[in-house]
Specification:
The complex is a heterodimer.
Chain A: H1 2-21, H2 24-46, E1 48-49, E2 62-67, H3 70-80, E3 84-85, E4 88-94, H4 98-101, E5 106-109, H5 114-124, E6 130-133, E7 144-148, E8 154-159, H6 160-165, E9 169-170, H7 172-176, E10 179-181
Parallel strand pairs in A: 2-4, 2-5, 5-6, 6-7, 8-10
Antiparallel strand pairs in A: 1-9, 3-4, 7-8
Chain B: H1 9-58, H2 60-64, H3 68-76, E1 84-91, E2 99-105, E3 119-123, E4 126-135, E5 138-148, H4 150-202, H5 216-319, H6 325-365, E6 369-372, H7 373-389, E7 394-398, E8 404-407, H8 409-427, E9 435-443, E10 446-453, H9 483-494, E11 498-504, E12 508-516
Parallel strand pairs in B: 7-9
Antiparallel strand pairs in B: 1-2, 1-5, 3-4, 4-5, 6-8, 9-10, 10-12, 11-12
Helix pairs in contact in B: 1-4, 4-5, 5-6, 5-7, 6-7, 6-8, 7-8, 8-9
The chains are: A alpha/beta, B alpha+beta.
């Protein structure tokens, strides 16, 4: 884990540097979207209660893991810096193996292509992981799926069936601001 | 403006009622308004706090997931409370500066760029509540609510208006009551004052004020009337007293005059008594003289008649020529003896008459002359012999032979006569053989005459009064009570001397006289 963290730190600077160098307005929009999503990832953790088996102690850290998106890793790292959730420190991990991901509390699956995403998500099923993804289809095992609204705003849908399958208790307030689906 | 104490009672009463009613209404109104204001404001504040808490709690997800639509929906729940005018939700995650996120407003109020300090604060006609929006122990934004106090202010204003109306009404009522009560309060007092003025001007204490009630003023009226009655009574008494005083003064003057007249009569009587006393002692003197002269004259008559008888016998013997030589010799012897006896007794009678005459002349004429005291005392005692001779009392005289006085012998004669008479009458009452002693000693410019007896003395309680006129313990038994008074007057006034008396009951009495050798000429 510690090793992975260090790796992530190295990665983090890269997309930011790339983004500034690229086409400015497009890069700025992407950057904003990335930041919003990173904030949302952190906030999902706030509105979620994991089964006791998943949280060892009241002060055990919560692991926010990023899979397949080095850019998100850096931004998320930046977003959660110095913050905590009710006594739980937040740790952001990236570029990990599938077995390691099962120990994470939140996993952002940023891989491209719906097939790849679905595979990643399937691997996390029944491990108490709040999985977040951006697949274009709603047909997946993920708990939360990002999408863009008509106004270009970042919104998300919550698959409550998947959430209960993973024994996650999601706040009603979260459901209030999300699109709720069951499958 | 006049000081309050000079304001008429009527106006004071009006003012009092006004002040009482106005202050009562004002205090009540202000108290109620303050209470309503405070409680209503507290209720609004409580409402604000609870609504703020609920909204902040509800808005967490909307803030966290940047959902302004939901946030606005949540804020619009505020319309259930019309006094909540505006609500502003600010997004402030982590170190980000707050920025407005959602807004609710009933009157087009804009949200300020920053929420402001947390807590409840006052604004014009509004309460502002700023509270952090917390999620999982982390502040993610701010909620700023604004509650209007305008309804409260309106309510208080209405209350104030009502209160002012009540004040106005109560002022009117108070003035009405004051005018109505004025008659009840001021009327009797004014009548009383009017009566008091009238009484003090006219001094008509018979005046009475009518009391219309039994309150304090009524009591005052009654007291006033009672006071008037007392004054009238006192006035009457004073006048009566004055009259009786005048009468008493007149009577006193009259009785004073009576007293003066009585005193004059008394003095006259005293003078007459003194004169009578003088005459009485003169009478006694005459009696004594007659008695005293009777003896030598009787002896002389006897001797003369014996001589006459013997001379007749001698003539008849001679005519019968029986006269013998021896008869003639015996007759001559008898004649010699008889003429001797007759001459001696006539001489004695002449002496007696001379001395009596001297004493009597002195006593009745009050003449002043030079005389030898010793001889004069003897002459006085001689005149007292008739009284002394009947008793076994003895008189001793001790006096220098060559002592002469230029004074009033009559006064001294009467003094000694009175003293001796006193001793015989009082001092030796019941005493068989008394002793009287007259001792005269020469002193510079005066003589000291000490007259003492060894009789019964004078009781101490009588001693200070013995010289008082008419003081006697023997009234009705012959004592006039003037003897020693006359002695005192003669010694002090006629002779210009002094007299002291000392006495001890059972041991006798002693009078000590100091007489000047030359009596003052002015003394009368």
């Amino acid at each position: 884990m510690r090793r992975a963290l260090r790796r992530l730190a190295a990665l983090a600077a890269l997309p930011l540097a790339l983004a500034t160098a690229a086409d400015a307005p497009a890069a700025a929009a992407d950057e904003l979207e990335l930041r919003v999503k990173a904030a949302f990832l952190f906030n999902f953790a706030k509105f979620t209660t994991w089964p006791t088996a998943k949280v060892a102690a009241p002060d055990a850290p919560l692991y926010l893991c990023v899979q397949g998106s080095s850019a998100m890793g850096g931004v998320l790292q930046e977003t959660v810096r110095g913050r905590a959730i009710e006594g739980h420190a937040i740790e952001v991990l990236a570029a990990m193996r599938a077995e390691e991901l099962r120990d994470c509390h939140v996993v952002y699956v940023g891989a491209a292509g719906d097939a790849g995403i679905a595979a990643e998500l399937d691997a996390l099923v029944s491990h108490g992981v709040l999985s977040v993804h951006e697949a274009s289809t709603t047909q997946s095992a993920g708990v939360i799926r990002f999408f863009l609204s008509d106004g270009g705003r970042v919104r998300f849908e919550v698959n409550v069936t998947a959430a209960s399958r993973e024994q996650l208790v999601l706040s009603a307030k979260l459901l209030e601001v999300s699109q709720v689906v069951t499958r | 403006m006049a000081p309050f104490r000079d304001v008429p009672i009527q106006r004071k009463l009006t003012l009092l009622l006004l002040l009482a009613s106005i202050s009562g209404v004002l205090l009540t109104g202000v108290g109620l308004a303050a209470y309503a204001w405070l409680t209503t404001r507290a209720a609004i504040e409580r409402d604000l706090a609870s609504v703020s808490s609920i909204l902040a709690s509800n808005a967490t997800a909307a803030l966290a997931f940047r959902d302004p639509v939901t946030a606005n929906e949540i804020l619009s729940a505020m319309q259930a409370k019309p006094e909540l005018e505006a609500g502003c939700l600010y997004l402030a995650e982590g170190d980000e500066p707050p920025r407005p996120f959602a807004r609710y407003s009933t009157a087009g109020l804009e949200c300020p760029a920053l929420p402001g300090a947390p807590g409840v604060s006052d604004e014009v006609s509004a309460l502002i509540s700023v509270q952090p929006v917390m999620q999982a122990g982390e502040r993610i934004g701010w909620l700023r609510l604004r509650a209007s106090l305008k309804p409260l202010e309106r309510a208080v204003a209405v209350q104030g208006g009502i209160m002012l109306a009540i004040v106005g009404f109560s002022v009117a009522v108070s003035i009405g009551i004051a005018f109505a009560m004025q008659r009840a309060f001021a009327g009797p007092i004014l009548r009383l004052a009017q009566a008091a003025r009238e009484v003090s001007q006219t001094r008509n204490y018979g005046l009475r004020v009518q009391a219309y009630g039994h309150d304090e003023v009524g009591g005052l009226v009654q007291d006033f009337n009672a006071m008037l009655a007392q004054i009238a009574r006192a006035d009457f008494e004073i006048k009566q007293l004055n009259r009786s005083l005048e009468q008493q003064v007149t009577e006193t003057a009259r009785s004073n005059q009576d007293l003066a007249d009585a005193l004059e009569r008394l003095k006259e009587a005293q003078r007459q008594l003194v004169q009578a006393e003088k005459m009485a002692s003169l009478g006694a003197l005459v009696a004594g003289v007659a008695h005293e002269i009777n003896t030598p004259v009787g002896v002389g008559v006897t001797a003369a008649s014996t001589l006459q008888t013997r001379a007749g016998e001698l003539r008849s013997q001679y005519e019968r020529e029986e006269l013998r030589r021896s008869d003639l010799e015996r007759f001559v012897t008898l004649a010699e003896e008889s003429t001797q006896i007759i001459l001696r007794n006539l001489q004695r009678a002449a002496d007696l008459i001379h001395s009596f005459k001297q004493v009597a002349v002195d006593q009745s004429s009050g003449e002043r002359r030079r005389f030898a005291l010793r001889g004069y005392i003897d002459e006085i005692l001689l005149s007292l012999r008739p009284q002394l001779k009947r008793t076994a009392h003895a008189v001793e005289v001790e006096c220098p032979d060559d002592l002469t006085l230029d004074s009033y012998p009559g006064a001294i004669a009467q003094i000694l006569t009175n003293l001796v008479t006193n001793s015989l009458l009082h001092g030796f009452d019941g005493v068989e053989r008394g002793r009287i002693r007259i001792a005269v000693r020469r002193q510079p410019e005066r003589v000291e005459l000490e007259y003492s007896d060894d009789g019964r003395g004078i009781a101490p309680e009588h001693l200070p009064r013995v010289f008082d006129p008419f003081f006697t313990t023997r009234r009705g038994v012959g004592g006039s009570g003037l003897g020693l008074h006359i002695v005192y007057n003669l010694v002090t006034q006629r002779l210009g001397g002094s007299i002291q008396v000392a006495s001890e009951p059972g041991r006798g009495t002693r009078f000590t006289l100091h007489l000047p050798l030359r009596a003052q000429r002015a003394a009368a």
